[in-house]
Amino acid sequence: MEYYTHTLNNGIRIIHKPENGEVGYCGVIINAGSRDEDENEHGMAHFIEHVVFKGTKKRKAFHVLSRLEDVGGELNAYTTKEETCIYATYLKEDYERSMELIADITFHSVFPDKELVKEKEVIIDEINSYKDSPAELIFDDFEELLYPNHPIGRNILGTPEALKSFTREDIFRFIQSNYHTDQIVFCSVGQKDFKKVVKLAEKYFGEIPENRRVVKRKPVLSHAPRIVRIDKDTYQSHVVIGGVVYDYNHPKRLGLHLLNNLLGGPGMNSRLNMSLREKRGIAYNIESSYTAFYGTGIFSVYLGTDKKNVDKSLKIVIGELNMLRQKKLGTLQLHKAKRQLKGQIAISSENKENLMLNLGKSYLLYDKVDTLEYVYNKIDELTASDLLQISNECFNPDDMSQLIYL
Q: What is the pTM of this model?
């Protein structure tokens, strides 16, 4: 994979992959999210992601939103537990326009009071709509079950009470405390010479004052498994079972990704989908997921089913987990699992927006980007014994928590 990197004097890193085409993609990824909030800042990272579009020192909100839209481009953003991202899709001739706009809203937003008031109401509506979707809400409640009294366990949106208390000064304080220049990456994929990329980056990002991280994130304490059942007035029951697993630096994380994909990944032929939906017809939605963070990670299985099938479904899920712990994958099973994962990685890399974001995140966390060939080789090196060991370390139902909405 051909890509180029550069580090500005203030610590902001640049990564660019030349790619022919009429459309390009670029963005800023900041290593700061809801995990970095103090208790009285719950929801601040997500709130900032919303209000950076509400005006800068030289642009009103309308001009921010119109800057790319007027020339056929798009501007977007998202917040996770550990990162904030502002990114754009643009026509190739509008590369500088896109970079300048992203730099402007990231570092020169002024957060007008009247805009803050309006956006608080928007997010409160978002929170309320989320509460109406138990299939989404259960994941937040499950993470709080795994990480009680720790910021990584709190939901990203915050609470109406916390949002109403936020001021402009609170926003600037959070940015100063968490938007560290050595924890920021500008990434792009498109038809642009890298020397010009660096020149533009120096122009729009080089002036940002150096502000390097000196304090590490709060460590995660040990987890005690719990089983919680909550009565909900819903037609369908929702179930999550899972636990704390490898962090994003763990050497076995790739093997866990493969097992997660085999067990309940996006393929219709995943073991859980075949057992619960195709074979027995007792669950419409069934999936597993593995999310790695700094110092910790979460593996979980989610399913939605009729109330009368909850216990039966859980028994099947636990049976599939135990099967991976007790029996090595056969040669053909292992080969198929590897091919499927490699194929999904290749397909994902063909989506240029995904590619841009993955480049940026990999460079942010690891200061490098592995080639597809390297990743394929690492997948090929995984043995049935490796996966059996990982399964026993991560899939023991006795170490897992359960959250059930009945």
A: 0.94
